[in-house]
# Entry
Amino acid sequence: MAIAERPAETVSLPRVNVRPGWAGWLSTTDHKRIGIMYLVSAFVFFLIGGIEALLMRIQLGTPDNTFLTPDVYNQMFTMHGTTMIFLGLMPLNVGLGNYMVPLMIGARDMAFPRLNALSIWLFIFGGLMLYVSFFVGGAPNVGWFAYAPLTQKQFSPTAGVDYWIVGIGLTGVASIAGALNFIVTILNMRAPGMTLNRMPLFVWMQLIVAFILIFAFPVLTVATIQLLFDRHFGTRFFLPNLGGDAVLWQHLFWFFGHPEVYILILPTMGIISEVLPTFSRKPIFGYAFVAYSGVAIGFLGFLVWAHHMFAVGLGPLANAFFGAASFLIAVPTGVKIFNWLATMWQGSLNLTTSMLYAISFIGMFVIGGISGITLASPPINVQQTDSYYVVAHMHYVLFGGAIQGIFAGIFYWFPKMTGRMLDERLGKWQFWLMLISFNLTFFPMHLSGNAGMPRRIYTYEADMGWGLWNLISTIGSLLLAVAFLIFLWNVLTSLRRGPIAPADPWDGATLEWAVSSPPPVYNFAVTPRVRSRRPLWDEKYPHLVNGSHEAPTARPRSPLHDGFEREIPAVMEPIHLPSPTYAPLIVSVGITILGFGIIYLGDFGLIAASAMLVGLLIMAAGIFSWVRISHIDSPHHAHHGV
Amino acid sequence: MSESSMTRPRAAAVHHTSLGVDNRKLGVWAFIGSETLFFATLITTYFVFAPVNRMRPDFQDPRKFLDIELTTVLASILLASSLTMVLALSAIKRGDRRWFTTWLLATVGLGLAFIGGQAYEFNHLYHEGLTLSSSLFGTTFFVLTGFHGTHVAIGVIWLLSVFFKVRAYPDSPENPMDVEIAGLYWHFVDLVWVAIFVLVYLI
# Structure
């Protein structure tokens, strides 16, 4: 049935050189394994971020509560925001992309497999470094946006902010390296016939996000470097008393921070653009509009950063410009929403868990989008800024939107990644519980926000009248936790006992469904040829290709049974896969030690400098082995045996 | 709809990419795009604070501190290194190992001379009283030019690693591309210096 089991009559299948057990994971360069490492580590961080949120909700459940001290509460909301954005949502999207993008474009791996391994290690170490701060004097407690001058040494004397800077820096390097990898992979490694306008929309969105990322992250990097210099080396970038400019931090941070929102949401828009057509049994409506609306969103995303700063007092002209530009983003976003609705219109809907999440994405995202429109208007914004209304808005977009989209993707692709089906009954329980408890948690925040409740307060007095809404939110958040436990249970049991997944369980249209579940290490025994946006549907339903609407006479035997594989001539180059190597891991360890040195360079010069030296030496050793393996591994070398 | 499938010659298939550009070259171009934003942010910061510096009691005048003659020499050194870099690439493409070695080491030498000159300049300025904390000018100037110098140093290490790789594997067909992408980065760093030289030193 599965393509992978084809007899090796046309090509010599590669000898797969995978180390067993843990060593195989530590030394892997396989995009699928790296994708799984991203998903698992990001999910762990996500659960930790969720626990932080629960602690906050317990504290806020009743007025005048003393469950958390104010300082711990500050650490909680800082770490919750930082974790969910940098260590949760972003890498969950990257994980799905890492696994699926090469499969969807008909490639055997990412363009730079070793760089890919470097990204996952730097991400994991960066995340761990952020969490080390809890044990060495306290986590950062200045908000995920780290506004100046609160972040300066005299106001934040612990090393928390330094760990934040370096931890974010490491994950930032990982993200930029990952984005470069996505850009080159998507632009350069498409199978023959896979033109840009035939790429699956998930791939389109990953490409756009990669471009946003390489232009947005360097700005954050510079801002955090300047902050580090302020804290340790006597500069005054963000120190107003010495002529520095606290508002400059806000500009730099949000120049990164707003595009970051689209880095989080666009991949999930890509996911549901795959899920909705599959389970509506119709092609996506207005493919080009969905793709190029994504481009428009990515572009406009760089022109709206100051809508996070309406309360700063930038003046009416700036506020009007940034307000108008923000409204403008609603246009391509609305285009997408109508395209998704039109995709489902008159389709034969198959309401799997994945589909339910995709539909729910649209609904919740629209609510978040509408509250976003109100916030984009400067006069309204000045009323609502820093209130719980903003918290409600952003969670409708990032939880109701991004997280639900990611769940749509996980339920959709889990069979492909693991070879097992998730339990649909548990999945639907999880979905309905999550949808209800999500709204229970976050909808009341609109009301408490409009009743004047500010964000980031650790408690409130009973006579403020916010008690009821907060109690409902807290109950909702506890139910949300149950929904996540159901998911965890579902994953753990399905991995062992779930039904074996066929290659193409959902009757999909894109190339990842052409290979076995899970795919072989080399993905495709023979590089596929692509003639349309839906290569698999063309193969399975050839009578529909030319617009005929007759029903298929019989279900096709198996995906791609005949089709584009057979016609490939037998003369093919041997499949070449990158060898496993520890070099990226070694380089990441070196960079991480270097990072620890940087944190303490200002306070313990000599020890820190020696640590930095050790880090650099480890890095050098890693790079040396990297260059060696990349030479031995190069296709020329493999073919000709230099 | 159905185009006939063609047999691709084996040699071409090895190098095949969708855009016809080498993967690593495309990657370095994208990386340079990212780096552009990095330096643009540092340069913007410099210009945001330049007028504020003038209004401050601890004002330090860039014109009084910066030595145009020294930095003109440094700029010429770096520009010359771009020329030697081009010559090194052309030599390796011809397969001329001897001239490749000469021109690449010349590039490395010029890069080191630039770093040495910058170290001299920083030391000189420090003794004149310009430090990271002496004024807004010191803050922005040292961080901007310091990060450029760091990039030059990384470039020197990159070039040296290419040099040793070519020495270790003289027959690898990837050598010209290794040199070319290191060169792309080198020219970019050079170009950033042209921007800094004009914007910070000249005007």
